[in-house]
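Appendix B, Record 12. Input sequence as logged:
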Amino acid sequence: MNGRSYKRIGALLFVLLLAVVVGCQSIGGFNLNDMLIKQLDVKQQEQSQSFDWEIEFNDELLSKEDPEIAAVLENFKKVSLNITHAKTDDEGKQWMTGVLHLSKGDIPFTFSADSKAIRLDVDGAKRPFVLDLSEFGTTFGMGLFGENSQQQLKESVRQLVKNVASYFVKGLPNPPVIAVERVSTPVNGISMNLTKVHAEINGEQLGDLIPVYLDNLIKDKEGFRSLVSGILQWVVELPPEIKDLFGGIGQFEEDFDFEATVDDVVNELFPLLKKAQKELTDSRDDEEWKEAFDKGITATADLFVDDSLQLRKSLVDIQVAPAIFSDEESPVRKIKIRSASEMWNVNGKVDVPAVKVPINALTQKHLTDMEAFQFVRLFEEDSVIYGLLKNDFKIDDQSFELSDEWGIPFFIDSDNVAYVPIRSTMEEFGVHLNVPEAKGQIRFYDQATEQSFVFQLGSLKATVNGQAIKLKHKIVTDGPFAYVSADDLFGLLGAKYKITHKEDGESVMEVTRDL
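Logged structural output:
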């Protein structure tokens, strides 16, 4: 799967969002249905887009929370993503640059994708992040075909999605407030004469429209049959090598009864719409329905369309403030979301370069076994993202539990000294011990504190970064396991521990390390 595939999924979701807000019935001679479906014809374009997110918290409830949690939430009261420039070409290659705005500061980034790789460059990162898509080619089946076959399949899928969307969009009712007018407005700095579609709806009204929508779908059984027939015909015409990916789809031989199969599918699936309609009718008086479709949830949209029915500009405002948010136990009072976008060079000539993968790129292989503290250190210490990860989210902090009953247990001796198993404890810190180079020695390196250790079994002697030290307690053994006192080990590693004795007799040691 490549950027083009992601684009097609995104286009479908975008059309469905527009459909929910706008509906599809013709207004003043302007065919909204055609406008919605037309967006699936976009193969390449340039655009800018912004998303703003604002949360109004329940301050009284927030004041009772852990101060660290409250501080993290405070950082995300207002968040905005500004994609200053994005490009998609007819091969599906994508490129975009933008800035994530947070209360702590701005995080610029650049994203690019093609059929072979996805690359993300983040301000403050010492190396770019790259996802090698060739490793997923066989999984998605795309790696089995040449580029021409892939292109043909994508175009075929695009047409299928367009046909499917046509049926479901066609039955959508219009929202209670909708208007169409001609306006002159700038797009990418150039004034254009466009058709403006303005729509408004709230949650309660949306809930009222859903049964109407299902009614419209049920009334159009012939449209449903055409939909099933189109999908089945698409499957029948798939190349043999693609059918093989789905087990051969052996039932679609040349002599199978196409019309009978369509009738069987329709008779099987169409009643599900009627069942959904009945369940919907039965649930509309439920309290859960009223909470989900609350008039405190509102959406307004201004969509600007050119004479070829291509979307060139959009403004969408959503406010989520249902009655349930007024409850004293609700952590949130209101959520505001605003999106604005401009599209230009639609289906024109768009030049998007292939993804460049530098030698020092961080791939999924590098990140798979990486400890959290190692990930944090991929960023410059004076960068915004480093501060967020380390100081706000504290993702590099470590914690785990040891038991005196399960796993390789810790124990407390007669002098009330707690001992922990060296190897398994260090593995909890993400450290794998080296094979001893000399009998009676345990060696390891703790990357988090940049310290190398050598412990002598049965001795107080040890070295840290080559410097001799004396432990408080000897290293002891119990069968094949070597133990060190918790005070010695955690003191050297900068960790803390606490032992809790449970009523059932088990003792649990909680270990934490703030890096």
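The chain has two domains: 3-72+160-335, 398-513.
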